[in-house]
Amino acid sequence: MGTPIKDVVLRPDAPKTLLLDKHADYIAAYGSKKDDYEYALSEYLRMSGIYWGLTVMDLMGQLHRMNKDEIIEFVRSCQHECGGISASLGHDPHLLYTLSAVQILTLYDSVSVLDIDRVVEYVKSLQQDDGSFTGDKWGEIDTRFSFCAVATLALLGKLEEINLNKAVEFVLSCMNFDGGFGCRPGSESHAGQIYCCTGFLSITGNLHQVNADLLGWWLCERQLPSGGLNGRPEKLPDVCYSWWVLASLKIIGRIHWIDKSKLRTFILACQDEETGGFADRPGDMVDPFHTLFGVAGLSLLGDEQIKAVNPVLCMPEDVLQRIGLRPEIAS
Amino acid sequence: MHGRVKLKSTAQQEEEKRKEKEKKLKIYLTTRDACFNKRKEGVLDEEALQLSQQLLASNPDFATLWNYRREILLYLETVRSEDEVQRLYEEELNFLETCLKMNPKSYGSWHHRGWVSSRLPRPDWARELGLCDRYLYHDDRNFHCWDYRRLVVKMSGVPIEQELQFTDRLIGSNFSNYSSWHYRSTLLPLLAPGSAESSSPQRECSSPTSSPQMHSHRVCEERLLKEYELVQNAFFTDPNDQSAWFYYRWLLGRAEREEMISCVYVSREGERVVVAFSRPVNALSVGFLLVVDGQPLQVDWRSAHSCVRHSPVWICELPPGTISDTSNEHNLTVTWTEKRTHRDCALYSGRAESWCRDSATDLELFRSELSVEKSSVLQSELQSCTQLLELEPQNKWCLLTIILLMRALDPLAYEKETLAHFQILKEVDSMRSSYYSDLCSKFMIENTILKMEYAEVRVFSLCDKSLSTLCHLDQLLLVTHINLSSNQLLRLPPQFAMLQCLEVLQADNNIIEDLEGLRHLPRLEEVSLRNNRLSRLSDLRPLTTCPKLTRLDLRGNPIAQATSIRSELADMLPSATDLLL
Ligand SMILES: [Zn+2]
């Protein structure tokens, strides 16, 4: 009485080549659908949405098609008195969108339009006594926010402004029996969270604390017969989890433990030939989020039509080179 | 954005959908603006609660609206009676339940529920635990709900035993339940005898050393045997269920390495000291102290491979003249102040070098993949797994577990069987063959180090072992001659630079295309890399940092075919006068 493996079956007519032009058209058009109901519903994460769109355009060499001046002005206008940045006008500041904003402005080499000292003050103000970070002043604690905090500060060259030892101690207290990480101490391992925590340890130079052989085993077991990766045992494969697992494996120096060509086939099959863009799984609706992680995943797999992506910050390597940021990668 | 299937529709359906969405958009925007306007004007009333409720019911990820509600509720707390506040918060909980029904995976809803529960004048934790029960019976993998459960358990002091029984019930109805196994891994260590707070789950995991990954050994033996029974039940019922196997691997444990200075090496030439630690450290931030002949010395430590901040091997040069006179004897002490441990090393007169290394660690070190104290337990576990393998000869989980058990019992005696099992694993689970190759390489390197005789501390061979990766290089600090020929190595990784005494390297017949680790090896003289995949001059650039290199054999590499390669190499590596191309 075995439990059947949850997976998808790729159709023989699924896309097998990378449709870069269609993806670029899809992203370029996405921002112009401003009177769309779904677009309005996603306002609460607009800043991240812009980061996804810009990053994937930059990876495809199409950043010039986006409206740079309008975007920079929008980001600037979302900084609040406290220094934090919100997803959109009228929304409250949050670490998630503070990081997205700093990533956007780093792509455009324009972080100076922000009041940087205040951004730093904001990030500092969210660190708790145990080293953890809340996402905003309302107290939700999560290792995602630890990642957002150090990624934001690293991009601004201000990493030493927080209590790094405590921050590291907290993230390590979220390490589990399987070598993975969860949201908080005691929380189950999850590929998204593992990405945040290995990324955090990379930025702070503490990757030696990871049991790479144990965690790498758990991560490579995320690959299903379809080639796609899931985010936890017994879950369906998904393009975004494929990125999080793949990036984590890259960070801990174990990317060769999965079958790269099968994963590539899965990611390509998640493209929509009509509209452009990537979906979570073949046959689902596309969105900019999965489009970025599909393209970024292909970049990590070595696709030469795409710029090299940094696995820790999910930004083009040439951008990080420009600002001199080199997060640790284990070998 | 997840799991929304793309449907084909007619033009008419499209048009109807468009009109409907247009209407919805209008309502949505009107309500949002009304909400935002009220907030801007500082209005904190129940009408605002109503308005935001309409929006959140369909869009619980709209975090700012939860914030607005909290502001309103906090204000109302100050102007209403306790009973009214109680009622308000209970209504909030009811509203949250409708939100969770719609979307049980919204971060915002669960966080708000925790916030409301903590504000209730008269909290009802039993009700909250009941809610978790219901949601987890419906979806036993909802990690938001699991996390909320942990909060409820902590706030209301639910006994650990009761929580273990809860996971018993979930696992009993479905073995394939990773979340429950995970929960058990956090609960069991809390039941360890001798820890005063162990009966209360309120104890926070506050330091990195209290995470379950590192504290497997704290599970008491009686409990452990019961767990073996439970998990064996699971994998005998469904041998392909990975959850039970992951849990089992943890249960079998892994040893922690004692933190110590494993080796101190000193060389008169270059007046160098090299120190190896049992785990990577950052010498620039941990306190460690070098004393030569009773004098503390200020030296600059650098890691053997400079690309990372933490390394097990650190190097320094002593002030010129400290130990250069061979007629003098010197005594060195390296102290790791933080860990209150030190290692001494005496350099006698007439000697060019000296070392002091810990030799007793090898066994503990390499059995560390699994380490339950009692080998009788491991023996009986091995028997069970072998029985299962007879029923399921292709079961990869069973094969891998047997390998780990054999290593924990006797790595050398079981070497042949281990290799045979790895071979099957690579065939039945080809997607992960690189994982199995690397793990097998690691075990073969460990076995070779275990078998190492005293003399081999300097001359070490790993040839013809199908190695796909190199590890434990910090253990080879003293090696002067290494043979890595006839393996499947793709590269000499940065850690290779930890072989600070290396003079002769043989790595023929591999698939090496990267020499990143051949950096700053002060004594390296001969390098043989016949029949590899070195193709570009830049691949050889690391060798320019090895000042003593005289002999380099590159026969059988693509680069050897390049025109004018000999003169280019002569320019790049002037000391290498003995070039074989
Ligand atoms: Zn996804």
From TrEMBL, chain A:
Keywords: Metal-binding, Phosphoprotein, Prenyltransferase, Repeat, Transferase, Zinc
Record-listed E.C. numbers: 2.5.1.60
CC cofactor note: Binds 1 zinc ion per subunit.
Catalytic activity: geranylgeranyl diphosphate + L-cysteinyl-[protein] = S-geranylgeranyl-L-cysteinyl-[protein] + diphosphate
GO MF annotation, one: metal ion binding
GO cellular component: Rab-protein geranylgeranyltransferase complex
Superkingdom classification of source: Eukaryota
Segments forming domain Prenyltransferase alpha-alpha toroid: 18-315
Pfam assignment, any one: Prenyltrans
Gene3D superfamilies linked to this entry: 1.50.10.20
InterPro entries in UniProt: PGGT1B-like, Prenyltrans, Ptb1, Terpenoid_cyclase/PrenylTrfase
Cofactors demanded by this protein: Zn(2+)
Family: Belongs to the protein prenyltransferase subunit beta family.
Subunit and partners: Heterotrimer composed of RABGGTA, RABGGTB and CHM; within this trimer, RABGGTA and RABGGTB form the catalytic component B, while CHM (component A) mediates peptide substrate binding. The Rab GGTase dimer (RGGT) interacts with CHM (component A) prior to Rab protein binding; the association is stabilized by geranylgeranyl pyrophosphate (GGpp). The CHM:RGGT:Rab complex is destabilized by GGpp. Interaction of RABGGTB with prenylated PTP4A2 precludes its association with RABGGTA and inhibits enzyme activity. Interacts with CHODL.
Chain's role: Catalyzes the transfer of a geranylgeranyl moiety from geranylgeranyl diphosphate to both cysteines of Rab proteins with the C-terminal sequence -XXCC, -XCXC and -CCXX, such as RAB1A, RAB3A, RAB5A and RAB7A.
UniProt-recorded name of the protein: Geranylgeranyl transferase type-2 subunit beta
Species annotation: Paramormyrops kingsleyae
Lineage: Eukaryota, Metazoa, Chordata, Craniata, Vertebrata
Automatic annotation (TrEMBL), chain B:
Keyword Acyltransferase (UniProt): no
Family under the similarity heading: Belongs to the protein prenyltransferase subunit alpha family.
InterPro entries in alphabetical order: Leu-rich_rpt (IPR001611), LRR_dom_sf (IPR032675), Prenyl_trans_a (IPR002088), RabGGT_asu_insert-dom_sf (IPR036254), RabGGT_asu_insert-domain (IPR009087)
PROSITE patterns, per the entry: LRR, PFTA
Keyword field: Coiled coil, Leucine-rich repeat, Phosphoprotein, Prenyltransferase, Repeat, Transferase
UniProt-listed Enzyme Commission number(s): 2.5.1.60
Recorded GO CC terms: Rab-protein geranylgeranyltransferase complex
One GO BP: prenylation
Biased composition, class Polar residues, residue ranges: 196-214
Keyword Signal: no
Protein name as annotated: Geranylgeranyl transferase type-2 subunit alpha
Catalyzed reactions: geranylgeranyl diphosphate + L-cysteinyl-[protein] = S-geranylgeranyl-L-cysteinyl-[protein] + diphosphate
Rab geranylgeranyltransferase alpha subunit insert-domain domain: residues covered: 261-360
Region called Disordered, residue ranges: 194-216
Organism, scientific name: Paramormyrops kingsleyae
Source organism, top-level taxon: Eukaryota
